């Protein structure tokens, strides 16, 4: 019997996950946590074979999903982690796999895909939610750890955008046209498989471009 701990700050999500996880009769949910604090306490006292966790949950510590993944990787390097998140984009996928996650499942598809992810991870494989697999293929790679490289100018445009500058302000600052800066921003986002400014700013922070 595979022992599973689940963590999500929404009780209804945990109820649904428990039903899905235990449906095949090969898994047992041995603990539930509503945030990072309770999760870390559980992991310290309850043996488990697999962790299914949300990405970002409120708490007193490690509310940032990447910080929590890094801590889990340091303290429990042998524990497979499945991330079930509403922030299912390629940037989050790459960063999560780099921090030790073995699977990323979109919350919108969790009822269908979570059993598949558990099966894959229990066999030592990785799992990527379907729409992200398609995005990776469109980007020309199926390797979730492959981080595309921006050109020097694209990197600088992304960095300045993340500091709060507008496209017009960047164009004036570097003495280039607005259309050129807009194109470099668009190219960078396409290269990173990022579709929103919020995700672009998150990428810039995660990459150390801005504090």
Summarize the structure.
This protein has helices spanning 11-22, 36-45, 65-75, 90-98, 110-122, 130-138, 152-162, 167-174, 178-192, 197-206, and strands at residues 2-7, 27-33, 50-53, 81-85, 103-106, 127-128. It is an alpha/beta fold and 211 residues long.
CATH class of the largest domain: Alpha Beta
Instruction: Count structural domains.
Output: 2
**CATH arch. level architecture of the largest domain:** 3-Layer(aba) Sandwich
- CATH superfamily label of the largest domain: Response regulator
Shape, principal axes of CA atoms: elongated
Number of helices: 10
- Secondary-structure element order, N to C: EHEHEHEHEHEHHHHH
Widest beta sheet: strand line-up: 2-1-3-4-5-6
What is the terminal-to-terminal distance? 44 Å
Strand tally is 6
| Largest β sheet strand count, sense and barrel closure | 6 strands, parallel
Oligomer category: single chain
Q: Find the structural class using helix and strand composition.
A: alpha/beta
Domain Response regulatory: 3-122
Domain HTH luxR-type: 143-208
Protein name: Response regulator transcription factor
Keywords: DNA-binding, Phosphoprotein
Give a verbal description of the structure:
The structure is a single chain. By secondary structure, the chain is of the alpha/beta class. The chain has 2 domains: 2-138, Rossmann fold, CATH 3.40.50; 152-206, Winged helix-like DNA-binding domain superfamily/Winged helix DNA-binding domain (Arc Repressor Mutant, subunit A, Orthogonal Bundle), CATH 1.10.10.10. It contains 10 helices and 6 strands. The chain has helices spanning 11-22, 36-45, 65-75, 90-98, 110-122, 130-138, 152-162, 167-174, 178-192, 197-206; strands spanning 2-7, 27-33, 50-53, 81-85, 103-106, 127-128. The chain has a 6-stranded parallel β-sheet with strand order 2-1-3-4-5-6, sandwiched between helices. β3 (50-53), α3 and β4 form a beta-alpha-beta unit. α1 packs across α5 (110-122), α7 crosses α9 (178-192) and α7 (152-162) packs across α10. The termini are far apart. This is Response regulator transcription factor. Residues 3-122 form the Response regulatory domain.
